[in-house]
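Hi support team,

I've been running sequence recovery on a batch of backbones for a student project. Most finish fine, but this one hangs at about 90% for roughly twenty minutes before it completes. I'm not sure whether the input is malformed or the queue is just slow. I've pasted the structure tokens below so you can try to reproduce it. Let me know if you need the job ID as well.

Thanks,
M.K.
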């Protein structure tokens, strides 16, 4: 291993031009509006084709985690045996670990690889390891570039590699700052929505609706809006304003709001004044208040003009109100209340579909149906009664390209309920992975929260099942669940200060924990059930 390149050799004019062209191409990539990982892949595509540098079409970029280890972020042309070993590289181990530790460019003639029997061995594979340093010389990561065995490092290459490292480092610094800013904005929006929800719940303390109704209805509205083509800003406003839809009920007398039976005709007339009351309450110039006013006033209007309070028709009805109308009715139909049972999902969907063009905007009903799998996932996460644990993936759930965990029969524990839950949990983990690959900060935070929430739902159902079967390892199992949930909470907190480093660790942890938990820990429970069934001559 060497950290100093050999004695100087003056590069030829062609090489100088190629160096200049390569650096310009890399700088252009840094300025392009493309996904972060695609930027890194494009840079690898450029540098792994530099013949004058001896490049052999292989390279990788690692990002430092909070413990100083290196997580593989992107790679180009790496053999599977090397890629598997390099998912995480400890500080100071291997050439790239040394490069990170000593903050120097390292040239090493060998790499460690795995034999078919799982043993490591050193094989000839020369490569440069280039530290990627932040403004304070903190190590952000390492870039590895594989070169031909016949290539002799030259001193002038040092300057190029240092410039290359600085260019990639700048991209990492920019992405970190961007994600930190976005995370702070997301946290502010969440706090704003929490305040809105609490105020709305306080104003509707006499209603039978729940906090989860408000959350479901708001998120359903966002999903419908997304599939209807609204901008991110419009979706944020819609989701924040939707909880105000029934705020006018604060003005409805107690004897009507608290009546246990059906309302008579005059009482219905009084109840139908709540949109107008809500509209009068929500007065102001702020965009959020104006959106809330539109929703409160118009979410009971009908597409054909037969709604109330104003009898608006078609696109006279504000868009946000048309969206919330569908979300509110679907949630009302599929939720249990003291005075009614929840409708089956298919019955509710059939009614929504049948009301397209009369009660509802037909284009928005199409948007609702297009986002149905997302709506069902929200319904599972924010259920009132605990039946959410029975949720399974709809048959038309979009496939995730390049999933982190591929669902196979090997992951079955042969309990129908638990297997359905496991499949959905794996899907939630894959959504986190997809969001991280795309470096969509908002999607990462939402997918992480969804995965955390559904894990809790699944864990409760699994523990109840184990308790009912007298499983002796229940306490250990419950503790493992707690550790996983606490770890995801910690990852979310760490995202505030170290987003790039945290996302790498997060996805490795989720993959390893979920797969091991299903294949080993849950498999032990499945074996216990089978032994118990065999002993009693029963079949589970």
């Amino acid at each position: 291993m060497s950290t100093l390149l050999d004695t100087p050799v003056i590069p030829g004019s062609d090489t100088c031009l190629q160096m200049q062209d390569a650096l310009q191409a890399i700088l252009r990539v840094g300025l392009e509006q493309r996904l972060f990982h695609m930027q890194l892949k494009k840079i690898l595509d450029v540098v792994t084709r530099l013949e004058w540098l001896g490049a052999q079409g292989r390279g990788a970029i690692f990002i430092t985690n909070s413990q100083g280890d290196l997580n593989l972020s992107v790679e180009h042309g790496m053999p599977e045996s090397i890629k598997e070993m390099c998912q995480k590289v400890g500080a100071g181990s291997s050439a790239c670990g040394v490069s990170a530790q000593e903050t120097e460019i390292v040239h090493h003639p060998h790499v460690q690889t795995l034999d078919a029997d799982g043993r490591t061995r050193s094989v000839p594979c020369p490569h440069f390891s280039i530290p990627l340093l932040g403004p304070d010389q903190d190590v952000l990561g390492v870039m590895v570039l594989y070169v031909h065995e016949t290539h002799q490092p030259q001193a002038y290459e040092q300057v190029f590699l240092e410039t290359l490292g600085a260019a990639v480092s700048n991209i990492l610094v920019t992405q970190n700052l961007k994600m930190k800013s976005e995370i702070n904005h997301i946290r502010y929006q969440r706090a704003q929505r929490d305040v809105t929800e609490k105020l709305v719940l306080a104003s509707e303390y006499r209603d039978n609706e729940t906090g989860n109704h408000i959350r479901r209805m708001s998120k359903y509205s966002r999903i419908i809006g997304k599939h209807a083509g609204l901008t991110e800003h419009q979706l944020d406003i819609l989701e924040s304003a939707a909880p105000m839809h029934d705020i006018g009920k604060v003005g409805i007398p107690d004897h009507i709001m608290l009546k246990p039976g059906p309302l008579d005709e005059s009482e219905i007339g009084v109840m139908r004044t709540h949109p107008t009351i809500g509209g009068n309450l929500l007065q102001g110039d702020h965009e959020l208040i104006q959106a809330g006013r539109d929703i409160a006033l118009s979410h009971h209007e009908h597409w054909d003009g037969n709604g109330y309070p104003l009898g608006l028709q078609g696109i006279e009805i504000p868009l946000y109100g048309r969206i919330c109308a569908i979300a509110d009715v679907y949630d009302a139909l599929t939720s249990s209340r003291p005075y009614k049972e929840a409708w089956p999902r298919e019955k509710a969907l059939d009614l929504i579909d049948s009301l397209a063009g009369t009660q509802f905007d037909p284009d928005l009903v199409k948007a609702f149906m297009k986002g149905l799998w997302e709506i069902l996932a929200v319904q599972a996460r924010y259920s009132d009664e605990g039946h959410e644990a029975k949720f399974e993936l709809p048959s038309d759930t979009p496939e995730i390209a390049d999933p982190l965990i591929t669902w196979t029969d090997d992951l079955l524990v042969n309990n129908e309920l638990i297997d359905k839950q496991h499949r959905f949990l794996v899907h939630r983990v894959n959504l986190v992975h997809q969001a991280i690959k795309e470096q969509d900060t908002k999607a990462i935070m939402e997918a992480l929260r969804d995965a955390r929430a559904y894990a809790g739902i699944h864990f409760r159902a699994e523990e109840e099942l184990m308790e009912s079967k007298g499983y002796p390892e229940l306490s250990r199992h419950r503790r493992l669940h707690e550790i996983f949930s606490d770890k995801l909470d910690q990852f979310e907190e760490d995202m505030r200060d170290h987003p790039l480093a945290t996302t790498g660790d997060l996805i490795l942890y989720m993959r390893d924990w979920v797969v091991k938990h299903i294949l080993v820990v849950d498999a032990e429970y499945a074996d216990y059930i089978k032994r118990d069934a065999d002993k009693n001559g029963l079949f589970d």
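--
Follow-up from support: It reproduced on our side and the slowdown came from queue contention, not your input. The CA atoms of residues 298 and 433 lie 39 Å apart. No action needed from you.
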